[in-house]
Structures are given as structure tokens and as C-alpha cells.
Design a protein that fits this description.
The chain has 410 residues and is mainly β. The strands form two sheets. It has an 18-stranded antiparallel beta barrel.
């Protein structure tokens, strides 16, 4: 059964907002009464420059400035009792109203009892081992207006029960409340011709955003192998984007079942990595994988620096008429990671993904270094080259950008 939210219904995120607000009050009450709350986090300023003029009407050009705040509040009793964590996030953009947003990344209470542990609240969970794409990482929704690499995630309400034994770790997740993906507004960059109207969202569930998802994972170390097996049933974190009313895209979230496998094998300087999934619920059942290696040259040129060479292959068997589109259907990633291992923790990662079928290429650079004890500067560049009509990335062919960030830790 499908549930379609109409544009005039202000309940798009009402249930999630109410849940977040209630949990916020609980956490604040807990930490306010605590005698020893550790406060940390960072604030920052971003300058993002788009050197090319926009492809679509209403998109801004040139420079976008934004500020961000990411404090962390942590409390744990001296007797080792339950831990309380609260991590909000906020960004204010000068050019795109949709990119200005507030989210609760984490807000939970967690504790352990012998081999068992639990977590109740909002959290971010990461699964996966590969560098260029995280196929198995499905618990949290992508915060797509933060960046283009799928690394930034929205907080997910959950109940997580874990069991740690000699034979491995088992995690069970109950995920009450679906988080919709964030999209750029009509003024924003990194969007298609037709903007996405979240008020037209369609869910393959009668409960809509109130749908309860379930997930589980087994993980273990077997000699030099790290192994993870996962299962997820619920609303897809990826959205199909068919054309809705008013010439705007209407996100469609399918009900899916996904199985996942992630493997990492360590052999001296080599790291061999693999992630694979099968998914039901978006047309015919399909499989996808990403796999490759990282080889590290330690103390290059008799220095303290390490240089890692990365190569990964992508394949995705989905029918993109029935499933969300992907740019990783038949691609190769090549990159290099440099760690200077100096007092400022300076490091850089450069890489490129090339579509084997049509040659569309995306290049990326990430570099950062500390400036003393509390300051850090980060540089990022995303460049699109040789984009071919029909490729998923063609809509963003004029959206290459360079981003500079100054961060202050506290």
C-alpha cells in the first residue's frame, strides 16, 4: 500500500520532529543534572566556489559562504553507568535556503551488561570497508546537501541491542521513523533541471515516515580477515525521482530487503576490500559490488610519510527504470592517500572515478592540516570531466567546485 503525502499537509516530518524534540528534552534534562559533562566539538566557516556558470535557471553562481556548528555533550557517571550523548548539527548557507538546516546527529543513552549492550535514541552507524562507495552502509539517511560523497549522514532514531562473544558480535536494530533524503533547493547547485519537491514524497508503506524498519549484522575477526554480514528490511534510503506535479520531482521510497557482505583482508602492506549486496523491492532483484585494494608504502624517501595507492572496481546490476539511478554501474576508482605523520596530522586523498562505458570522469581531492592546537584548515575539490549525455552525472556537469573550510575545535 502506498502513502502519498500531499503538498498541503504540514505533517511531512511531524512525527520525526516530535520524536527529536522529546528526546532532546530528555537528554538535556539528563546532562543538565550531571556534575561532569564533557563538552567538545567544533565550529567552522565554509567558502565554496563554483568556477562555472550554472546549468539551470535560478541556480546561484560564484561563491557560497556558510557557517556550521557541531557541539558534542557527553556524560558518564563515575561508577561506569549509562552514557548519555547529545550531538546536534547546524549549517547556515548564504545562497541555498535548503542547505541551511539543523539536525540531531546523535542523542542517545547507552550501557552494557556483561556481554550485552544497548543503545536507545538517535545515532549514526557505519558499516563498510571500501573507500569510494559504501554499499552496505544503509542504516542512516544521507545528508545530500552537506556534500556529494555520501559520507554525511542524518541521525536515525533506533533501538540497538548488541551481543559480543568469542565467536563474533551480533547487532539487532529497530528503526522507528523514516528520515527523508535532503535535496538542494531551486537556488542550489548540484541538482537536476527539475527541483525535488519533498511534499510530493511517496512511500511504499501505509505508515509513511512512521514506518518501522529492521536490521541486523554479524561481524567478526577471523585471523587476517574482517567479516560483516548484514540484513535490512524497510524503506530504501535511496529515492527514485519520477516527475510529479508542477514539473517537479516526487521522491519515491520503495520498501526493500537488502543483504550485505563486507570483507577486508590484511596482508603486510596490502588491504584487500570488498562490499556486495543483493536487493529486492526495486524491480527485479539485483546485485551490486565494489572491491579492490590499498597498498601502502611506509616511510617513503626515508621520511615519516606514508603513501597508499588505492584501486577499486564498481559494478551495479540494477535496472535504472525501476530502481534509483546510480553513477557506479560500471566504473573504476584509482586514488592515492598521503599521510605526513607530522605534529599537525597533515594528510591528503586524491582520486578519480571513470565510467568504463562512456568515459565520464569525476575527480576529488581532500586535504587537511591542523594549525596549532585548536584550529584546522580543510580543502576539498570535486571536478567533473567529459560528462556524456545520458550519464547520471550529466545534470551536474557545470557543478565542479572547490571548498575551503576553517575549523575551530573547543
Amino acid at each position: 500500500m502506498m502513502n502519498i503525502q500531499q503538498p498541503d499537509m504540514p505533517v511531512v516530518r511531524t512525527w520525526n520532529t516530535a520524536f527529536l524534540a522529546a528526546l532532546f528534552l530528555v537528554v538535556i534534562s539528563s546532562i543538565a543534572s550531571a556534575a561532569d559533562v564533557r563538552v567538545s566539538g567544533f565550529s567552522g566557516v565554509d567558502l565554496r566556489w563554483f568556477p562555472q556558470s550554472p546549468k539551470y535557471d535560478r541556480q546561484f553562481s560564484g561563491l557560497e559562504a556558510s557557517t556550521l556548528l557541531n557541539p558534542e555533550f557527553r556524560y558518564q557517571a563515575d561508577d561506569g553507568g549509562p552514557q548519555v550523548v547529545f550531538i546536534p548539527f547546524a549549517r547556515l548557507s548564504s545562497r541555498d535556503a535548503e542547505r541551511s538546516h539543523v539536525d540531531i546527529r546523535e542523542a542517545y543513552i547507552a550501557d552494557h551488561m556483561d556481554d550485552w549492550d544497548y543503545l536507545v535514541g538517535i545515532n549514526r552507524v557505519f558499516w563498510g570497508v571500501t573507500e569510494s562507495r559504501h554499499l552496505v552502509n544503509i542504516i542512516n539517511q544521507t545528508d545530500a546537501i552537506e556534500d556529494t560523497d555520501d559520507e554525511d549522514k542524518l541521525g536515525q532514531p533506533m533501538i540497538n541491542i548488541g551481543l559480543q562473544k568469542d565467536w563474533g558480535r551480533l547487532d539487532a536494530f529497530v528503526l522507528p521513523g523514516f528520515r527523508e533524503r535532503t535535496f538542494a533547493g531551486s537556488d542550489g547547485r548540484l541538482r537536476a533541471d527539475e527541483t525535488v519537491d519533498e511534499d510530493q514524497a511517496v512511500f511504499d508503506s501505509g505508515a509513511g515516515t512512521r514506518h518501522v524498519d529492521f536490521a541486523g549484522r554479524y561481524s567478526h575477526f577471523l585471523g587476517d580477515w574482517d567479516v560483516g554480514l548484514s540484513l535490512f528490511h524497510g524503506l530504501s534510503r535511496e529515492a527514485r525521482l519520477p516527475l510529479g506535479t508542477g514539473n517537479r520531482r516526487a521522491p519515491h521510497y520503495d520498501l526493500i530487503t537488502q543483504t550485505g557482505l563486507d570483507l577486508q583482508y590484511t596482508l603486510d602492506e596490502w588491504l584487500w576490500k570488498f562490499e556486495g549486496i543483493t536487493r529486492e523491492g526495486q524491480g527485479d532483484t539485483f546485485a551490486a559490488m565494489v572491491g579492490g585494494f590499498e597498498y601502502t608504502f611506509f616511510q617513503i624517501a626515508e621520511s615519516d610519510a606514508d603513501l597508499g595507492i588505492l584501486t577499486e572496481l564498481h559494478w551495479d546490476g540494477r535496472d535504472q527504470t525501476d530502481a534509483p539511478s546510480t553513477a557506479f554501474d560500471n566504473d573504476i576508482f584509482v586514488g592515492a592517500r598521503l599521510a605526513l605523520n607530522n605534529i599537525d596530522d597533515s594528510q591528503a586523498l586524491i582520486g578519480g572515478i571513470v565510467d568504463v562505458d562512456d568515459g565520464t570522469t569525476s575527480l576529488s581531492l581532500e586535504a587537511d592540516t591542523r594549525l596549532g592546537d585548536i584550529w584546522k584548515i580543510e580543502a576539498e575539490a570535486r571536478l567533473l570531466l567529459n560528462t556524456v549525455p545520458g550519464n547520471t552525472l550529466a545534470s551536474f556537469e557545470r557543478d565542479s567546485f572547490i571548498n575551503l573550510r576553517l575549523v575551530r575545535y573547543f
